[in-house]
Design goal:
Length: about 350
């Protein structure tokens, strides 16, 4: 029996979970949604989940529940909540994981570590996603752009279940990748994620910020901090969507950095998603971001390795200041960030 036979439980029906769940439904799979937003759950049950945007538009129907309402056990659970909610969500979903089942971390950050701590590494699957999507309103998710989708066993093993999950992800994204180095993708995304957090200090689009000569120097230095930490972990980072994390490793030539930035700009200009989800949390939804949950592990790993990461530390502080309303979104924030290292933006 395939790991994806029977209902797939999607825990978190927002941007990532809603988009994946809708694609699984369109491919003929049974899906059950769980979300902690009562209005979103009610809207899905009343009128279905509507996917808007240039990739496909559809309204799909599947049962949706609040975490306290879901019953039963599932062999395949996709965890799609924001990183800051991972600990609470995995504690809630653990009783619903069937023996021999798996939890797939379709999130941003190193959430696989926390998931494995609760349900066990043998039942945890690494997953990397970089497609563009946003939650718009109850019952509506915007799928705005194709992006990398990668899946792999945490230990890199080639197993029957990972082949089945890979086939499932190909039904969402035909260019999905099956990897024996999922940690290389996750650490590569941490470098890219740090850049996205920096762009969210401004009101400029991702592409405009990455393309700005005034911003690029501090963004390079910020990415190199995480690159040094990744190198200290012995991780071989993996490239995706025009982003080359190797360009941010110690000793990489500036030409490689410039090419990576140019490729990132080109990729982001092709997407209908102009700003990051981080920016949306700050500017539109006015809520706490994943700054501590995503960037905090970089700082923690840096401390263990004896690596200074002043820009990353200051970036977390500045994001918190925007969250609490004491700092405005402004391009000038990048110059202030640069000063944390004595550099100039």
């Amino acid at each position: 029996m395939s790991i994806v036979d029977g209902p797939i439980l999607v825990w978190g029906a927002g941007a990532i979970g809603g988009t994946l769940g809708a694609a699984f439904l369109r491919a003929g799979h049974k899906v059950v949604f769980v979300d902690n937003a009562a209005d979103h759950v009610a809207a899905i049950n009343a009128g279905g989940l509507r996917i808007a945007g240039p990739i496909f538009e559809d309204t799909v129907r599947a049962p949706a529940f609040l975490p306290a309402e879901i019953e039963g056990q599932f062999r395949c659970i996709f965890l799609c909540v924001k990183a800051l909610h991972t600990a609470a969500a995995v504690a809630e979903l653990a009783p619903h994981l069937a023996p021999g089942g798996v939890v797939v971390s379709a999130q941003n950050g190193l959430n696989e570590i926390e998931i494995a701590r609760v349900v066990g590494a043998a039942q945890t699957i690494g997953c990397f996603v970089n497609f563009g999507a946003d939650y718009l309103e109850p019952g509506v998710v915007h799928y705005s752009g194709h992006g990398a989708v990668v899946i792999g066993e945490l230990d890199g093993a080639s197993t029957e279940r990972i082949a089945q999950l890979f086939a499932l992800m190909q039904q969402f994204e035909p260019k999905a990748v099956l990897t024996a180095n999922i940690w290389g993708y996750l650490w590569g995304k941490l470098i890219y994620g740090a850049l996205l957090f920096a762009t969210a200090l401004t009101n400029d689009s991702i592409a405009d910020c990455l393309d700005s000569a005034a911003a690029r120097d501090v963004l390079v230095r910020l990415g190199q901090e995480t690159g040094r930490v990744a190198a200290a972990q012995g991780v071989a980072t993996e490239a995706f969507d025009g982003f080359d994390p190797a360009a941010f490793m110690p000793g990489a030539p500036r030409a490689a950095l410039d090419k990576s930035f140019d490729d990132m700009v080109a990729h982001n200009r092709r997407s209908a998603k102009s700003h990051s989800g981080i920016w949306r949390d700050l500017a539109i939804r006015k809520r706490k971001t994943e700054a501590e949950a995503q960037l905090g592990p970089i700082v923690a790993a840096a401390e263990k390795a004896g690596i200074a990461v002043p820009l990353t530390r200051r970036l977390i502080e500045m994001i918190h200041e925007i969250e609490t309303g004491v700092r405005p979104l402004d391009f000038a924030n990048l110059a202030e960030l640069a000063s944390a290292e004595g550099a100039t933006a």
